[in-house]
Input
Amino acid sequence: MADTNPLVAANRLGQSIWIDYIQRSMLESGELTQLITNDAITGLTSNPSIFEAAIAKTNEYDASLAEFVKANPESSNLEIFNHLAVADIQAAADEFAQVYADSDGQDGMVSLEVAPELAHNASETIERGLQLNAAVDRPNVMIKVPGTKAGVEAFEALTEAGVNVNVTLLFSVSRYREIAQAYIRALAKRAVQGKDVSRIASVASFFVSRVDTAVDSALENMDAEVAKPLAGKIGIANAKVAYGHFANLFGSDQWAMLAKGGAKPQRLLWASTGVKNPDFRDTYYLEELLGPQTVNTVPPKTLDAFRDHGVAENRLAKELGAAHEQLSSLEQQGVNLDQITGKLEEDGLQSFAESFDRLMLSIDEKRKQIAA
Output
């Protein structure tokens, strides 16, 4: 790994870079191995949209799908998907096994998401999360649960049960705090029960660029003198304030007691860090959110850009006061960030649900072709 590689430099500065992408060809071609070896990539995340692109829009899974359907003709479309997805997640987890061992179980994680239709059903999310965790059967799998109100409840129960969880679709600082507090409660319950807390890892996936897109749209109708200083700043400011809460929560006396038992802090994971505004530097969110004890999950295009010309330096903890001022200024202009983040959560859930529905339809079409 070259010293000049900004991805390697970010790792040395304490931030884990995970790739937000999975496809069977990357596992079979050695591409993932190269990312781990050359770029210090230490984890992988998936979601319904990623699997839709991989399974529905390529023929890479057709042979495996046909083989499974012929052996299990009564299987549902969901069961077919789970079979295909679990195989990929297992293969990726095996690729990251050494990273997992070298990081004492904090890195080397691979995420698999519960079906989006369960986002508001805590009990079914818990049940499906346990099933997926058992199906993958790897110590370095993370089950992804959306950060809805029901998701908070499911996350706490799954963590108490010993499951690694990636809580996704977090947009607001208040919801992030709920999640972090639920994590601490769950580990405290395990500790009281005499159960091991040292092998549990978790991340809170805090979305960034989507916040800027929505806020900047709200700023368009305002006076330029007021709007310009805030444009493209609120996503970063929101994330920095969340990071401040992370430092406080995981620097508390309660956490110190758990840490003595080997507990690992739930790291903030920066998601939605691909740049959507063409006026921004294409490495903007990686550079501004680089800091210790965090993760950044990055789509391939952004990963390539950062490798090529990214600047790796710790910026995350800088100008926290300015971040608070920017959020206050936004509120003074009548822009309700809570309403925006609430809408973003709804939109994110809908987007994943639509991707999942399209994926199920594609699987159904493929199995019909097999039967014909």
